[in-house]
Each structure stands twice: as structure tokens, then as C-alpha cells.
Design goal:
GMP Synthetase, Chain A, domain 3; globular; alpha/beta; Rossmann fold; 34% helix; 24 strands; 4-stranded parallel β-sheet; 570 residues
């Protein structure tokens, strides 16, 4: 069947989401029994999971949690992409619990800290986490169940180990015997249903509390923006599943439509899996898109085709102005390297090079930029496909009000603030931080600086917050890294910032040395000693958090009257 592209799906108007359980049941009811929700592989063996079986697994897990007295408690999940991830997500939330997705790249200390903070009672984990969970289990005495997902991880890490598959079977048996808790438990859309932790081991970490109402509303907002999806669409899920961006746009919205999601099993195999699964859609961060763009041109140049391709792009773009779209024909060979069916890429998490958007659009792959923040579940705005407004992140999505909070009316820019049903409940156990991010009239302060143009499109010009967003979408919190710099005698004063270096944002430690300890040393020797100390610190950090850049100051940092470093002056 020929795909109908870029037309509003009538499902949005006829079947709005009430809650997760209602959405899943309606999706299952209108799809064929053999319709796949997930395509995935384990140990090089391919699997497919149908929507019907997916829902029954969710219901079974929720029932098992209830029978074990864990309905309403917190469940953490950590590991690589797997159908069990969203099975656990839905089962926990629908039965009144709190899902706590954890980044598999965080430290052991952070895992322990977050599990204890959220009062987690069940931990679900995939194969890559087996050894780690085995080591940490004795440090987490309040966790009642450690549930390994895959067969190779079902060996007991402690006496509290219960295989995920065993929980599913347990729940199915209880349902067959008449237990109907899962299908009858009232859905409280306003209570905390998810805690998304930022990184950090002390006071710098925050737990973003999202309700089911937040997530459901944002899934519908996403559906309104990416409304060309349907039950014939295949998406390739590439981003880590602990990302709210990936969950909302890549899973909740896809499940609403009944799309099929292929799970990428490794960053190393993205290109291979694009060719294997032939997706219609990708949901990515700029690093992936920019890498794809670079590889495309490298391959074109290698074949000596650059002039020919650029000419074809110009001709294609001209024809598009007259409503003639021959991109799929002109660039069929290039498009085949992306599986041959790729229509669009949704990109968010950081600023994307505008040339990527222009070039991919020229060959027939639309790129839709979005803007969001975890505290808003996360989507706030999206640039409609074919809007031709490169440089803007688009207008606010339906249901969200965005305005610019200016210090003076005459200012051209101000802080972007937002209000809507997708905005978080607050920060977990942190009322002071919660109060600080809301205006008196209830708008959430995004920390981004920008303006709205005459048509209501949002333009971001800078960041007010200290957060550093890398091109891979990772959020880096300077205060956390500065904790690692504390206590080193050679560092008198320090700050961590993001610096542009050869087109890449680099995490940089800016240090004012303790010159009293470095008397008689040359500038080169001082920098060498500081670099040596910094390298030692970096060895204790995940690779994506390491401070590759170093700047040595000759004078102290400029400070406020309360002796705080003026970061905007660095």
C-alpha cells in the first residue's frame, strides 16, 4: 500500500488518549493480532513482539507486582533497549507506582543514591547490568526484587532475584485465576508516576516528577506534531530509553498510532540496522544526524559524484518550488543507504547544524526540529515539516503557552517560560528548587533565552542555565563536575563550562591555580601539572563527562558580593 505522507491522521480527533491503559487497549483492539509493536534481536537472533502479547505482558507484570504487594511502589529500570523497558514502564505506572528510569552510564554511587532516594522496591535490568547489580545488591537492602530481563541474566545475584519472565508467568496465572486488579485500578492522572533523575551524587542532582497526566498530554502533543505516523510506520529506536524524549516521541506516540518500533541493539550497528529494518522515521539527537550527514558527503566524494549531486539538489529544489517532487527518483541510490523508505528524522536535544536540514531535505529526507526539556515531559515546540524556518524550533505545541519573560520591555530577548498540562509536578523532595523554577503566575522557567517572531515561532539565542548540552543530547551539570575538582590543592578556583572547539562543544575546566604552591614554575609547567591532575579526575568519570578542555587563568574569577563566580563572565 502506498504511504500517504504528511496528512493529518484522523485518529487524533477520534481517539484521544485517556490514560495509558485505555490507550493500549484501544490500540490492541483496532490492530490485527499479528501486528508487531517491537522488532529486536538478542545474541544475533531476531524476535518480534505483537501488540496483543505486549499488552498481555504489561497486564501480567502489573498483576504480579500487585500480588507481591508492590503495586504503588517505585520500580527502577536500567539497561539497553528492550521490550521489557516499556513493559515495566507501563505496568508500574498503571498499577499506581513510580517508574525510575536510570542511565546505564551513570556510576555505581549514583545508582545506589537514586534507588535509595526514590525508595525503589523493584529493580529491572538487562544483560549488560548483571555484574554491576550483583555487586550492588547487598548495598540496597530495601529492594525486594531484582528482576533480570534476559535468559543470560537470570542467574540469581542474591536471594531476592526473581526472573522477569517468572514475574510475567506469575501474573498471567493470577489473571487466568480471576485477578482483575490491573484492569480495574483507578488511574490517578495527577500523582507522581515517574522520577527522572538528573546526574549528580549530592545536592546538585534533581528528580523531575512527572505525572501520568503530564506524559499522556505530551504524547498527544507529540501526536499532533508528528501526525503523519500511522500503523504502517516503522521507527528505529536509537536513543537510550531512559531519555524522556525517546519515551514520549519514540514509544508513547508510536504505541498510540500502532506503529512498529525496531530496537537498535548497539550504537555500533545503527547504519546496519537502518538498512535491516528500513525505517520510515528516525528520532535522533544532532550528533547522529551530523554524523550521517558527514558520512553521506564522504561517500559521495569518494565516488567522485559531488558536483553531480549538488547540481541535482539545485534542480530538485527548483522543481519543489513548483510542487514537483522528484527527490526519491533523483537520489534513490543515496536513499537506499538509509533503507530506501526513510521519510523523516525528528531531531531534538541540542542545536542542529542548519546545513544538515537543508541537504537532507534536498534529497527527500525531512528533518523536523523540536524543543523541549525533561521538566516538560519534554516537548514544548516543534518546527512543522516543510515550514522552511531553519533556525527556529517552531511554535509551541498544541496545549502549551510559551511567552518571553523580559527584564525590561525594551529587551529584544528574554527567558523562555512555558505553561501547560505537560509541565512537571516539581522536583522530588526539593520544594526550594521547585519554587525557583516557576514564575508567580505559574509559568515554568526553561533557563533558555530567546524570542518569538511575528508568527509565534520560537528562536533560542542562548542559555541562562549552567547546563551544558552536548551534541549527543547528554546533559552535563557543571556543579557535579566541580565537586570532583574540589579539594585539590593546585586548584584555587575553578568552573566548568562548555567551549566550542573545532565545531564541537567541549567540556572545559577553567582553573585559577594556587600560585603559592607553584612558585618558580613556568606557564607550561603549571599547565602540565594541572592537566596531569585533571586527567586523574577524568579517569574516575564516564567518558561523556570527562573534561577534555583546560583553560588556565592568571587572575581570580569575577565574583558577586556573595562571592559566587559570575559564570556569564567566564
Amino acid at each position: 500500500m502506498k504511504r500517504v505522507k504528511y496528512t493529518r491522521n484522523p485518529l487524533i480527533d477520534s481517539q484521544p488518549i485517556v490514560d495509558f491503559r485505555d490507550m493500549l487497549k484501544k490500540t490492541v483492539d483496532r490492530l490485527p493480532e499479528d501486528k508487531a509493536v517491537y522488532l529486536y534481536s538478542r545474541k544475533k537472533q531476531d524476535f518480534s513482539l505483537t501488540y496483543k502479547d505486549f499488552y498481555e505482558n504489561i497486564r501480567a507484570l502489573g498483576t504480579a507486582l500487585y500480588k507481591r504487594g508492590l503495586a504503588g511502589s517505585a520500580t527502577a529500570i536500567i539497561g539497553e533497549a528492550d521490550p521489557a523497558y516499556m513493559t515495566t514502564y507501563y505496568a508500574t505506572v498503571i498499577t499506581g507506582g513510580v517508574i525510575v528510569p536510570l542511565d546505564k552510564d551513570i556510576s555505581d554511587e549514583e545508582i545506589i543514591n537514586f534507588i535509595k532516594l526514590a525508595n525503589v522496591r523493584t529493580v529491572v535490568y538487562t544483560a549488560s547490568q548483571n555484574n554491576r547489580i550483583g555487586k550492588l545488591a547487598e548495598l540496597l537492602p530495601d529492594v525486594q526484587i531484582f528482576a533480570p530481563v534476559t535468559p543470560e541474566t537470570e542467574e540469581a545475584v542474591c536471594e531476592r532475584t526473581v526472573a522477569f519472565t517468572a514475574l510475567i508467568e506469575e501474573g498471567k496465572s493470577a489473571f487466568e485465576e480471576g485477578e482483575r486488579f490491573f484492569e480495574t485500578v483507578p488511574q490517578d492522572m495527577e500523582k507522581c508516576s515517574a522520577i527522572i533523575f538528573t546526574s549528580g551524587t549530592t545536592g546538585t542532582s534533581k528528580g523531575v516528577m512527572l505525572s501520568q497526566g503530564n506524559l499522556v498530554s505530551n504524547a498527544m502533543m507529540s501526536a499532533n506534531v508528528i501526525d503523519q505516523l500511522d500503523d504502517r510506520t516503522t521507527l528505529l529506536s536509537v536513543l537510550p530509553m531512559h531519555h524522556t524524549y525517546e519515551v514520549t516521541t519514540g514509544h508513547l506516540t508510536a504505541h498510540y498510532y500502532g506503529a512498529t518500533i525496531a530496537l537498535n541493539d548497539s550504537i555500533k550497528y545503527v547504519s546496519k540496522n537502518i538498512k535491516k529494518y528500513k525505517p520510515d522515521y528516525l528520532i535522533l539527537v544532532p550528533l547522529f544526524v551530523e554524523t550521517m550527514h558527514k558520512k553521506m558527503w564522504d561517500e559521495i566524494r569518494k565516488k567522485g559524484m559531488e558536483k553531480k549531486v549538488r547540481l541535482a539538489m539545485k534542480v530538485s529544489n527548483l522543481l519543489m518550488c513548483f510542487g514537483i517532487d522528484l527527490r526519491k527518483k533523483f537520489f534513490a541510490q543515496i536513499l537506499e543507504s538509509y533503507g530506501g523508505r526513510l521519510d523523516a528524522i525528528v531531531c531534538g536535544g541540542a542545536k542542529l547544524n542548519p546545513q544538515c536540514i537543508k541537504d537532507f531535505r534536498s534529497i527527500g529526507i525531512e528533518i523536523q526540529e523540536g524543543y523541549g526539556i525533561t521538566e516538560c515531559s519534554p516537548l514544548l515546540a516543534a518546527n512543522p515539516i516543510n515550514a522552511n524556518r531553519v533556525g527556529s524550533v517552531g511554535p509551541a505545541v498544541k496545549g502549551v503557552t510559551v511567552k518571553i519573560d523580559k527584564e525590561k520591555e525594551s529587551d529584544e530577548t528574554g527567558e523562555i517560560v512555558a505553561k501547560g498540562p505537560n509541565v512537571m509536578l516539581g522536583y522530588f523532595n526539593n520544594p526550594e528548587a521547585t519554587e525557583a523554577v516557576f514564575t508567580e503566575d505559574g509559568f515554568f522557567r526553561t533557563g533558555d533565552i530567546g524570542y518569538l517572531d511575528a508568527k509565534g515561532y520560537i528562536h533560542i539565542t542562548g542559555r541562562k542555565k549552567n547546563i551544558i548540552i552536548l551534541s549527543n543530547g547528554k546533559n552535563i551539570y557543571p556543579e557535579e563536575l566541580e565537586e570532583h575538582l574540589a579539594g585539590h590543592d593546585l586548584f584555587a578556583e575553578y568552573a566548568v563550562v562548555g567551549r566550542e572547539h573545532e565545531g564541537e562543544l567541549t567540556i572545559t575546566a577553567v582553573i585559577y591555580p594556587n600560585y603559592d604552591l607553584l612558585k618558580g614554575k613556568t606557564a607550561e609547567e603549571i599547565e602540565g601539572l594541572l592537566r596531569q591532575e585533571l586527567n586523574e579526575i577524568n579517569r574516575t568519570l564516564p567518558q561523556y563527562k570527562q573534561m577534555r578542555g583546560l583553560e588556565v587563568r592568571e587572575t581570580e574569577f569575577e565574583k558577586t558580593t556573595s562571592r559566587k563566580i559570575k559564570r556569564h563572565k567566564i
